[in-house]
Amino acid sequence: MSARYRAAIIGLGRIATMIDDEVAGSPYLMLPMSHMGSYLEVREVEFVGGADTYQEQREAFGRKHGVTNLYSDYREMLERERPDIVSVCTSARPRAEIVTTIAEMDVGVRAIWAEKPIAMSLEEADRMVGACREAGIALAVNCARRWDAWYSKARELIDAGAIGEVMQVTVYQVGNLSHNSHMLNLARFLAGGGGRVEWVFGDLDDDSAAGPGEDDDLGGISYLAFENGARALVRQDKWRYCESEVVGTEGRIRVLNDTQDVELWTRDGEDGLSRRLFPRRQKIESATVRAVRDIMRCIETGDEPASSGEDGRHDLEVAVAVRESHRRGGVKVRLPIADRAQRINSYETLLSAEDLPRALQRRRRQPSG
Q1: What is the per-residue pLDDT across 191-225, written as a single tens digit (0 to 9) for each?
Q2: Is the domain defined by 5-144+287-308 classed in CATH 3.30.450.20?
Q3: Using CA atoms, how far apart are residues 184 and 236, in angstroms rounded to an integer?
Q4: Residue 298: which of 53, 110, 99, 26 has the closest Cα?
Q5: Run of H or E residues at 5
Q6: How far apart are CA 136 and CA 103, in angstroms?
Q7: Is there a smaller number of Cβ atoms within 10 Å at the N or the C end of the chain?
């Protein structure tokens, strides 16, 4: 089968390619996780170019993948290569400008697959979503568990009523509100319906770091109330592995070790709940390969991606609301947030005074010789 879609990547560091080497051999993670690795798995996609402002990253990417069509200016790459799908794998700081610039350029881009979080501020997220909608570009945000085969099956069972009406979702993992927006996004996904949050309570790790004028990324506890009546508790602090549970009126679904063990419990007459065999797939692709296939489907149908720009914006808005709740002494904060200048400085932007990509920080720390 010849390739139908041309793909390019902006930002050639960790999530673009290196993460597959970092996590190889993990019993909990399915490869590929990188954007490049996922494109290479899909025969309908041809990789046509990569761009990065750092020469070191371009050279490392080129050596690893044997490619030469690499650029320091992503605009030149887009104009020359005219990709259908563009991955934006930079840190959060330049992401909004890059996505809106792509949407405003007339170079034939049909879908953007951006890393999470969608942006640093709600204002930026609004601009990104609006620009892509106006340009007719499908915008996907890489909260990859929405494409994971097991979480997708759990959502199918929830939508089919297998556990009745969803009452409570609980999600645990170490991390931060914005950079690890996976967890808020996952809770919204498992709550069923549109996953829209009406109001929140927040209890964060550090009172001083969450104070007025402080915008750095924090972990802690988020309590979410959804439009469909479900509630969620998301705890992002000390529990390293991703675990979640969905409790319904007629049963529950438990996901342990990030889908290594998935349990379905359903009512057995009046005698309580019985553990059922969770439906297993015969062939499983990684979540990011499934993301590429979903993006292709959206190009062809006009549908929204499973984790869309709207989802990314709502995740950021929930995170901001949780922080505001903590700032105000744990009061209920309703969405939407009126002040769109509100922001959270995603964790990865705080790791280096120069805002260097993490992959480049690692390389420069390695001893030579």
Answers
A1: 999 999 999 999 998 888 888 888 999 999 999 99
A2: no
A3: 10
A4: 110
A5: strand 5-10
A6: 9
A7: C
